[in-house]
Amino acid sequence: MNRTNGGVNLPALRSHNTALVLDLLRGAGAGGISRLELAERTGLTPQAVSKITGRLREAGLAVEAGHRASTGGKPRTLLRLVPGAGHAVGIHLDRDALRAVRVDLAGTVVGERCAAVDLGAGAEAVVRAVAGEVEALVTGVGGEGEADAGATALGSDAKGVAARSGFSRAAAGSLPALLGVGVALPGPLDHTRGVLHRVTGFPEWDGFPLRDALARRLGVPVAVDKDTNAAALGLAVAGERGSFAYLHLGTGLGAGLVIGGTVHRGARTGAGEFGHQVVQLDGPPCDCGDRGCVEALCLAAVTRGDLAEAARVLGIAAGNLVALLDIDLVLLGGRTVTSTPDPFLRGVDAVLDARARRTGEKPVPVRTAPDEVAEGAAQLVLAPLFGRADA
Amino acid sequence: MNRTNGGVNLPALRSHNTALVLDLLRGAGAGGISRLELAERTGLTPQAVSKITGRLREAGLAVEAGHRASTGGKPRTLLRLVPGAGHAVGIHLDRDALRAVRVDLAGTVVGERCAAVDLGAGAEAVVRAVAGEVEALVTGVGGEGEADAGATALGSDAKGVAARSGFSRAAAGSLPALLGVGVALPGPLDHTRGVLHRVTGFPEWDGFPLRDALARRLGVPVAVDKDTNAAALGLAVAGERGSFAYLHLGTGLGAGLVIGGTVHRGARTGAGEFGHQVVQLDGPPCDCGDRGCVEALCLAAVTRGDLAEAARVLGIAAGNLVALLDIDLVLLGGRTVTSTPDPFLRGVDAVLDARARRTGEKPVPVRTAPDEVAEGAAQLVLAPLFGRADA
DNA sequence: TGCACTTTGGCAACACCGTTGCGAAAGTGG
DNA sequence: CCACTTTCGCAACGGTGTTGCCAAAGTGCA
Predict the structure, then answer these.
(1) DSSP 3-state helix, strand, coil percentages of chain A (rounded to 5)?
(2) In this structure, which CATH number among 1.25.40.10, 3.30.390.30, 3.40.640.10, 3.30.420.40 belongs to the domain A85-154+172-233?
(3) Mutate which of A21, A278, A286, A287 to disrupt the B interface (most B C-beta within 10 Å)?
(4) Confidence at B28, pLDDT banded by 50, 70, 90
């Protein structure tokens, strides 16, 4: 619960329960959820839920929203999250382009900007550019952002609550109504410190403290993560339950792993290195220096137009993953998959079905998923508010 | 924290903090640990630690044990776990033999029994035999169990505390001083319900509710898990930190995964299916019906005496695992490895080293580990007492 | 030997958490 | 119109960790 050490005191307990209720409110969406349902789902008493929701309502984070039909007594009052009470910006920073979105507490996109970037221009220039996009997105210049009139007013309230609830991480000068900025990018990096390791082709980025640089410039908290992890987090928040793997097949092949509802990153943010799983001993050489990696085999098949073989290879690697981790679901994404999903879905499904027949268990379902990396990046900031620890 | 739902109330908070302190006391061993160190490690205030340890001392679970050297003021008083305050029995049930150990709270083996079993004799007969071994072990008949005089007396106290602290799971008639029994066995099974799925070669075991049958007979809580998971849990409790994989190479090849200090089992207790990871597309057929599984390749190499090749194949599969999960350590065990450890250690190490050179990170260490499955099985029972949730 | 100082750890009062007991509010059904 | 059911808040309560304070037990210097 507490990351550094395991001790739980009363404020921590309060934060935890409050976050839990907020998460359920978010999950219920615009339809709302009653106090008694919240009590059942959390295991707390109805009275405790009343107190917690009372604080949330006072803080402007929740409101009453109609009633459910009576079942013979007083009808349940529905509660709903106030989406506009807080915002976060998520940025998908790729090698040559950038996509930034502003989302509200419910995760709905309320503003979007795209721009070209040149990583070769140096870290400082890119930080400046990214900061500019964030500011434009928040102040509404050039964005599609309507839905702001009330939102900005409530924003500072939301921040106050966040601070009182023990969530906020010392936002200094800062932009109005902005809880923080999440940045997702490829390369290896250190998620906990927000430091980049090696950005392929741009050695000058090695060791650059992106998180702190951006946080100092913007005055709001910043979180940094791998693009595949952000995508997986976004899917988890969007409603995918349990444990799943998001396999992204684009210019490369990577994975984001969600285990028990939380993204698994490993101690060095290295987890999800799926592309260089070896599936053919002494197979063809890969760019990484090893031989027989899935990525090499799969992309080679794609290049020569043999999508069925690409899907079969991907399926075998996915089967390994499913067997090793006993996950519930495989999600496929990335340009290569989304352009022609069917052969990939069929191919991976065939391998997983065959495996299920051998073990006698139900086959693990395979689906496609939109790759909304920027949206997931925004959730890097929102996750702590809703009790989704980023271990 | 709470498995079913996430809500935390005061009793849950108290249990959690108490378990945390108990875990630190256990980790400190006979040397002991001071109240202030406990406070630092838990993040609680010294006063809170004093209250918690006071309850533990009153319950007979902890005692004062000397003082540390002064650093200019009052010297710190050391506290120590009372190992004899509780016991658990762990059973390693294999195809043809059984090993049962009785351990104290510190995990020290204080009694051991071995016996032949015949799974073909049917579930009821085996349950009867297992129960007999447990009773013999606890009453001290035929065991090497000295160290019992005081232990049994304190036992009932310990149970009282466990109940008061919210740990106990309703032990009815029950054996004296016994907190529970853990059973580890191969085959696929459902850890949460304690039901076996398919025991290879013995179809009549399919669906047998081993946990409940044994619990009803003995009157104490029973936990059931895969042998590799138990072994991994035992290693985690014995002091291995962080995330690691225990690879067991015996008559088959399996793995136990520990991620962030807790055993990862997956929703269907299927995780750790390492032997049938495919590392050679369309490779030689495996007993499982697939082709190119590590287990088949590795064991074939062992059979023809090529241990270097066996180790290389094992290393490549281990490398896949390390890359996918970003774990900190690989531990090797099982008859085949322990009989001639060196070639395996060298072979796996070579593959992981090469991987580390390519990625520019520190290589993941490889070591051998004793396969103490029965000891780990006992920890299935003790784990909840020390706050190690078995999710 | 005496005294100042540091550090540990317990006692008592405290703030605040979720819980319990009870009553008001708001429906349904006869 | 009334009995009944169900929801939900107010007030008192028990129990958590926290704070303030002080006794105990060392070290180090005069």
Answers:
(1) 45, 20, 35
(2) 3.30.420.40
(3) A278
(4) confident
